[in-house]
Amino acid sequence: MTLGGEPNFRELEPGIVTDFSARMSYGSYLDLGTLLSAQNPVSEPQHHDEMLFIIAHQTTELWLKLVLHEVRAARAAFAEDSIGVALKCIARVKHIQKSMTEQWSILATLTPTEYAEFRGFLGSASGFQSYQYRAVEFILGNKNADLLRVFEADPPSHAVLDDLLGEPTLYDEFWRCLARAGYDVPGSALDREVAGAYALNPELMPLVKHVYEHPGDCWPAYESFEELVDLEESFQLWRFRHLRTVLRVIGMKTGTGGSSGGAGYLQRALELSFFPELFAVRTELGN
After folding, report:
1. At 7, which helix (H) or strand (E)?
2. Do residues 127 and 133 make contact, with C-beta atoms less than 8 angstroms apart?
3. Whole-model pTM?
């Protein structure tokens, strides 16, 4: 078969490696045998759309693994006073979040009728039980010790969350970094009980307002503020898209994991903030 008078195929170039008996291949490097064998539908008879449901959630877990990897690195960079390195990691996370948010549109092709065909086979399995999602929330400041009970039957996941519960958040390390750089960070921000959920600290507001009113004199802090705002906004967009997809597919039903589903739990999550001072200052600026 020809196209425009030329054969419609491409010959293998002489230098292409074809013998992998003693070489690493693409498949072996990525462990594709394991990765591509991890999709195991449980519906009986197997429903066509369950494969979509599984892959969408597995892909999200892979992205969450990378988000956690990058946020940990950003936190370590702040602890080492390497603001530029921290912001580079945060910038990457924002791009990951964009892909994660757009991915909801694929899952939204699952109609209520299609999902109902296999939802009953999921039992109590739910995204509510994603320890990596909880890990990202914890390291960004939305900590909740009660959630560890969900993972008591999974010791490795429980250990990850328990460790993060007692560690400083990204935001905690950021304020400590600014204090070492000479900014007037109040002691209440530096000595916060890190195991608790982060809440707005009124004593930080004068500093935050000063930075926004004098960006030229406080550029590292000013740039960091805006990168953190971007990070939270991207995360909230992902949360919102999650909510809208759930409402589209199951409406007001209770979640498979026992949560109040789209109408309750997911809606309340939108009210949580990682970096509340950076948003609260918007009301005060220009007054």
Report:
1. strand 6-7
2. yes
3. 0.91
